[in-house]
């Protein structure tokens, strides 16, 4: 009979072999997509992680629903964080396509500055996928810039319905499905949890 | 022909109606599960969000792989955060079932203190699902305590393979699928991104 210790020893060997095989060190392109909760917050969690390693971080938000979000209030006070809000709001709030497109373009110009700065270890392009969905930005042009970024720089793109070209270019893609949501049961978007 | 502004106006009405219908205010139980990246980091992002609203936060980690993680280094320096590391390590590292079970139990005792403190707005039970998987903790007993927590307190449980009883009890469940991972392409776990 195989004991617990033997089973775990075998598992440890498998894990150790995989770790030994992964030796490339470079910046990683991550995409957090899907309809579930956690795409942006997972990126913000990595912001905290990167700051814990003394890295400089830039966050560019392409779509902005409210100006009193907790993460913005918190991270703006942290040294090493550049936080930019580029979007004019959700497009069904503004109902002005030209203004939204111009706002996305301005956000992208800010992002480009960070994407050529080797001193920035992590760039978060929050809710950027909407800019592709609504045709505000061209995915091929964005990918060309991402490929030219400093070799050690990590980038996280968040938002629903990431285009296939972006998924193909990414190193890591997480697809977050919503199994259920408190909102469906009539619970209001709660401060400190949802915003 | 329907214009962009008309289409967006209609979408705005639908969204506004849904928001108007969700009026319950209370603490929410969130479960971040699945095999993809972002379960813990999404919880850590919510930690930042909650701190931005001036809330006190407790994080209890049930499984601990390394002691030099960026999120721990970062959040330990933040006022309002209690950070506890309860686990002894991944079980295939320790190969000692009794020690792991005892460590999980100690972590749970610490969690219980926060789960009865109305001054704590958010409790993160990080990687807690492994404690159920390996039989270190009983899910029914844990759910009983979660149901008795202060009414305004949010709880986030993370980890692979959340048991069905936990999913049923949760208000919000996000299932994070791994579409691909840089590790598969031989990229090392990078500081500031993976730990």
From TrEMBL, chains A, B:
Compartments annotated for it: namely: Cytoplasm
From which organism does this entry originate?
Candidatus Accumulibacter contiguus
Tell me the keywords, alphabetical order: ATP-binding, Cobalamin biosynthesis, Cytoplasm, Nucleotide-binding, Porphyrin biosynthesis, Transferase
Q: Which gene encodes it?
A: cobO
- Locate the Cob(I)alamin adenosyltransferase N-terminal domain: which residues? 4-19
Instruction: Report the protein name in the record.
Output: Corrinoid adenosyltransferase
Q: Does the keyword ATP-binding apply?
A: yes
Q: Does the keyword Chloroplast apply?
A: no
What family does this chain come from, according to its entry?
Answer: Belongs to the Cob(I)alamin adenosyltransferase family.
Q: CDD domains of this UniProt entry?
A: CobA_ACA (cd00561)
Primary site of residence? cytoplasm
As recorded in UniProt, its EC number(s) are 2.5.1.17
Q: In which pathway does it act?
A: Cofactor biosynthesis; adenosylcobalamin biosynthesis; adenosylcobalamin from cob(II)yrinate a,c-diamide: step 2/7
Which Pfam families does the record match to this protein?
Answer: Co_AT_N, CobA_CobO_BtuR
């Amino acid at each position: 009979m195989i004991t617990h210790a033997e089973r775990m020893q075998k598992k440890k060997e498998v894990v150790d072999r995989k770790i030994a095989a992964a030796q490339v060190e470079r910046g990683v392109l991550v995409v957090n997509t899907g309809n579930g909760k956690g795409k942006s917050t997972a990126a913000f969690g990595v912001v905290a992680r990167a700051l814990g390693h003394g890295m400089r971080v830039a966050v560019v938000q392409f779509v902005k629903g409210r100006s009193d979000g907790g993460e913005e209030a918190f991270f703006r006070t942290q040294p090493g964080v550049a936080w930019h809000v580029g979007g004019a709001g959700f497009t069904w709030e503004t109902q002005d396509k030209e203004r939204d497109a111009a706002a996305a373009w301005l956000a992208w110009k800010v992002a480009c500055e960070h994407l050529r700065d080797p001193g920035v270890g992590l760039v978060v392009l929050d809710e950027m996928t909407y800019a592709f969905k609504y045709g505000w930005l061209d995915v091929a042009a964005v990918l060309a810039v991402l490929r030219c970024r400093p070799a050690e720089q990590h980038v996280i793109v968040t938002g629903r319905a990431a285009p296939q070209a972006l998924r193909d270019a990414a190193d890591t893609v997480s697809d977050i499905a919503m199994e259920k949501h408190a909102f469906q049961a009539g619970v209001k978007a709660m401060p400190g949890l949802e915003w």
